[in-house]
Design a protein that fits this description.
The protein contains 15 helices and 17 strands. It has 516 residues and is an alpha+beta fold. The protein folds into 2 domains: 191 residues, Creatine Amidinohydrolase, Chain A, domain 1 (3-Layer(aba) Sandwich); 270 residues, Creatinase/methionine aminopeptidase superfamily (Creatine Amidinohydrolase), CATH 3.90.230. The protein has a 5-stranded mixed β-sheet, sandwiched between helices. A hairpin with a 2-residue loop joins β2 and β3. α12 packs antiparallel against α13. The structure holds glycine (GLY) and manganese (II) ion (2 copies). The site of one manganese (II) ion (MN) has 4 residues, from loops.
């Protein structure tokens, strides 16, 4: 509703006042004219998305695991940034994975697996479910929504898909979102009394959570037991992404290539940033321009950390000066239109060459990363990567006389003093989320065994803060991390980000070449 000139301020509800600046005419003549004389919306066939050859296997896995149950996977709603301004929409990663949708598709959409046994399922369905994507299709140009709805209307935000478009592109049955509530609530109840058990990917969309809770309460279902069912679905969706298919690996290769181009842009921008009071912002901006140019967005906020800021693990304020002679730790990733992201770090001498102590620290971190790469192959445990990297760091710290105890004592579980200078993990899975598969069981993650197709980071670092009185002064204010993205292959691994120089000498000549 728009504001009404006859309503006094006292009687107008607060939530209606958001439209007080609207000056849209309300006359019938205006409405009639707005609804007429628009060219018809372009129809036609939409070619099938490549990903549609890969998503049926993912949906089949969900169907197999939860046969006989209604499975509900929301994309999530638009999120308010301030007042009536939303963040750019980004769907939940489980929804993106199971539908194949990327970019800003599609606020409020929900993927529903309805139990139905099929001897020979059609291309749209699975052995145990009928699968339907519910979303709000674009309204016609003869509707008020077209010009009056600033969140959905084509006049405001541009064309959006209609039901036929997603059906053709994704190979999934589509229905209008206005049919979702009835489909969700139908016959909800304990299986033992002939009802349909629902499992929900919780916390993706609080409105859907409330609908499910209401349906369960009306069926007198135990809410705590239902929460446990939901948690199993969340866990399964996370674990389903531990091994990437070929399409996902191609997406990650694309994200890595765009990220490398972004790092090159930053090196070219460095002469402008060095000596600038907000030099870190120049770096952040240069990378962001590449992320928007080649991808959908950043996969996470860029860490553009100069000098001592490099010792702050998630420094994203990026508002500081860059001074000559400092190191710049740049941790950044381009998220592709498919929403797969890279996650790469390089630590760069801003004046073109490392000082002796910077190089000493850099080469220790590189040795730790190289040692970790050496052990990666199918069959080893994920946690062995970290153990390998930190052992090498501990050895260097011992050589430099920084450990307060013997190397053996530090490496024992009761010691671990070396971790003062690297309190984070060495690796995390990478994919649709920068920290992908985060809800997977410990047995499959930290204690999991590597398989071909897994993608994760190797990212050791050393961080000596200005305030660190446990190290000699020459080390203080130096933070180094080297982070690469790794694909497990049949007999070892591939460094997906190998095209970005890693050795100190190579980094220096790369800078010289790009700034020539
Ligand atoms: N960019 C955050 C991380 O490396 O995990
Ligand atoms: Mn990382
Ligand atoms: Mn990172």
């Amino acid at each position: 509703m728009t504001s009404d000139a006859q309503t006094s301020d006292e009687s107008q509800q607060l939530q209606d006042r958001v439209n007080n600046r609207s000056q849209r005419p309300q006359s019938e003549a205006f409405k009639a004219f707005m609804a007429a004389q628009w060219a018809p919306t372009e129809g036609g066939e939409h070619p099938r998305d490549e990903v549609a050859d890969f998503t049926p296997r993912r949906r089949a896995a969900v169907s197999e695991r939860f046969a006989g149950e209604r499975i509900v996977i929301p994309a999530g709603p638009l999120k308010v940034r301030s007042n009536d301004t939303d963040y750019r929409f980004r769907p939940h990663s489980a929804f993106a994975h199971l539908t194949g949708l990327g970019v800003d598709h599609e606020p409020n959409a929900v993927l529903v697996f309805e139990p139905a046994e099929h001897q020979a399922p059609s291309a749209w369905d699975t052995a145990h479910h009928e699968v339907t994507l519910y979303f709000k299709p674009m309204a016609g140009r003869d509707t008020e929504e077209f010009y009056a709805d600033s969140r959905h209307g084509e006049f405001w935000i541009g064309p959006r898909p209609d039901l036929a478009e997603f059906e053709q592109r994704l190979g999934i049955r589509t229905r209008d979102l206005d049919q979702f509530e009835a489909a969700l609530s139908k016959d909800v109840g304990p299986a033992a009394s002939g009802g349909t058990q629902v499992r929900l990917l919780r916390e993706a969309d609080l409105n859907v959570d409330a609908l499910v809770d209401t349906a369960r309460a009306e069926a007198s279902m135990d809410l705590e037991a239902s929460d446990a069912l939901d948690a199993e679905l969340t866990e399964f969706c996370s674990e389903l992404r531990l091994v990437k298919d070929d399409w996902e690996v191609e997406q990650l290769r694309g994200s890595v290539a765009a990220t490398i181009a972004g790092f090159e842009d930053v090196v070219r921008a460095l002469p402008r940033a060095v000596g600038h009071d907000r030099g870190e912002r120049i770096v952040e901006g240069a990378f962001f321009a590449r992320a928007r140019l080649e991808g959908n967005d950043l996969g996470y906020d860029t860490i553009a950390a100069s000098g001592n800021n490099a010792t702050i693990l998630h420094w994203i304020r990026n508002h500081d000066r860059i001074d000559p002679g400092e190191l710049l730790l740049l941790d950044a990733g381009v998220e592709a239109d498919s929403l797969y992201t890279a996650d790469i770090t390089r630590t760069i001498p801003v004046s073109g060459s490392y000082s002796p102590v910077q190089r000493r620290v850099y080469e220790a971190v590189l040795a730790a990363a190289d040692a970790a790469f050496e052990v990666v192959r199918p069959g080893i445990k994920f946690r062995d990567i970290h153990a390998t990297a930190v052992k090498v760091l501990a050895e260097h710290l011992d050589d430099w006389g920084l450990l307060p105890v013997s190397l053996d004592e530090a490496l024992s579980p009761e010691g671990q003093q070396h971790r003062r200078w690297m309190p984070h993990g060495t690796s995390h899975h990478l994919g649709l989320d920068v920290h992908d598969c985060a809800q997977a069981k410990r047995d499959l993650y930290l204690d999991g065994v590597l398989e071909p197709g897994m993608v994760f980071t190797i990212e050791p670092g050393l961080y000596f803060k200005n305030e660190d009185l446990a190290v000699p002064e020459e080390y203080r204010g130096i933070g180094v991390r080297i982070e690469d993205d790794v694909l497990v292959t049949e007999d070892g691994c591939e460094n997906l980000s190998a095209a970005l120089p890693r050795k100190a000498d190579d980094v220096e000549s790369w800078i010289a070449r790009l700034q020539a």
